[in-house]
Write a structure and sequence with these properties.
Blueprint lengths: L1 H21 L7 H34 L16 H16 L1
């Protein structure tokens, strides 16, 4: 049954590819139409791509565990007040 399903899907995909590459609709094949639409969108996609690269760089800087001098820093930094609050929560939990 699996081989039959594989053959049917393969045949359908090949048929679709042949249709997209050869059948003309309005003087152009569907493949040519898709290529033209992609080329029209390409400048917008480049702007999005550049923005995404900048975003990735910013995130990498924020989550980096090294400071600009190259010294390894802890990922989380807590002040003394936070540590005391955590210690109180732990001590209450261990007593009760």
């Amino acid at each position: 049954m699996g081989i039959l399903r594989f053959l049917v899907w393969t045949t359908l995909c090949i048929g679709l590819g042949i249709f997209l590459g050869t059948q003309e609709i309005g003087g152009r094949t569907p493949w040519q139409t898709m290529q033209g639409a992609w080329k029209q969108q390409q400048p917008r996609l480049e702007k999005v791509k550049d923005g995404a690269e900048d975003l990735v760089d910013d995130v990498k800087k924020k989550v980096s565990t090294q400071d600009p001098a190259g010294v390894q820093q802890p990922k989380e930094r807590h002040n003394e007040e936070d540590r005391k609050a955590i210690d109180q929560i732990i001590s209450k939990r261990s007593k009760g």
